[in-house]
Amino acid sequence: MKRLWLVFAQSVTVLLAAFFVIATLKPQWLDRRPNLSTVVPVFQSAASTSLEGSVSTSGFSGAARVASPAVVSINTSKAAVNNIHSGDPWFRFFFGDQLQTQPQTGLGSGVIVSPAGYILTNNHVIEEADEIQVVLNDGRKSIAQVIGTDPETDLAILKISLTELPVITLGNSDALLIGDQVLAIGNPFGVGQTVTSGIVSALGRTQLGINTFENFIQTDAAINPGNSGGALVDVNGHLMGINTAIYSRSGGSMGIGFAIPTSTARSVLESIVRDGRVTRGWIGVEPQDLNPELAESFGIASGSGVIITGVLQNGPAAQAGIRPGDVITSVAGREVTTVAQLLSAVAALQPGTPAAMGVMRRDGITQIDVTPGRRNPPPRQDQR
User: Fold this and answer.
1) What pLDDT band is residue 169 in, cutting at 50, 70 and 90?
2) From CA 3, how far away is CA 353, in angstroms rounded?
3) Are residues 286 and 366 in the same domain?
4) Are residues 196 and 249 in the same domain?
5) CB-based contacts of 15: which residues, under 8 Å, 6+ apart?
6) 257 in a domain, yes or no?
7) Which residue in the list 68, 124, 150, 220 is annotated as catalytic?
8) Which of 116, 153, 220, 351 has the CA that lies 20 to 30 A from 227?
């Protein structure tokens, strides 16, 4: 028995010695856990996945690839105008060649919206141009024909006669939300097609003094001279607006740009292509926003509608029974709370077709049917 105990003690001693040697020199032999070098921490894996996803699926490169081919550069030119006295030697002696103006050139952008060659751009890009040349992203060039213009929204429709044209998809600008990512595509300063990114900074911007009908998308995507008429697209490459103007003290981008929504551009496009012009309704009233002071004096809630301060004699509104002091709350079922909304809602009416208007008076709310007339565009101003 003593002998067996001695053998057992010696065996345990040898095993402990071997364990000590292995634990000291080769500890990995004793580690039965998975190999840590092949295990990726969860946060690292998530970050890597996110990074890879952003490269391939963030939408910026995809949106640019989808929309860029349909965005064109527009070059305009206007011939030099000779002064009536340019042939008089005495005038030439005193004034020299200053009597003859130099040819004028312009630069802008546009968006192909139809396989038939229709292009959306800004009216101010092509206004008074004698020749308009469109340059596609693939290098093709074509002289464009003006199909129609709408100075009140600063939009114009051109047409080119090329085939196999890339066409942009018109998106739903009414679904845009503040903070949505957008891209601006155009030809700033003539350097070539350029894509900039940003977000929707604000919606429904009005009273900027740019156009008669204003409902701008504001964005911080860099927009510079030459971008006018170009595309504002979402992350799917769908057209959300036509880049039109910037707020700037230096002439360059300061992070405040404005685009005409696709909803407005689509309406103008369809009207011009169908009728050759944009037809808008008119009722002959002078509206004013219902500020708190006016609302209190009339005993109604502020922001309830638009107050009418003047009515044109024998105009559509007067004939229907609308009078000064009335507050219009809706037009054809469309709620209005500002002058800009009222102007836009009335303009969208079909001339000659009665439309119901909600009217608030001291004795309650009533509904009046008004048959709008046709709005005459304002006379063009001499821009020389």
Assistant:
1) very high
2) 120
3) yes
4) yes
5) none
6) yes
7) 124
8) 116
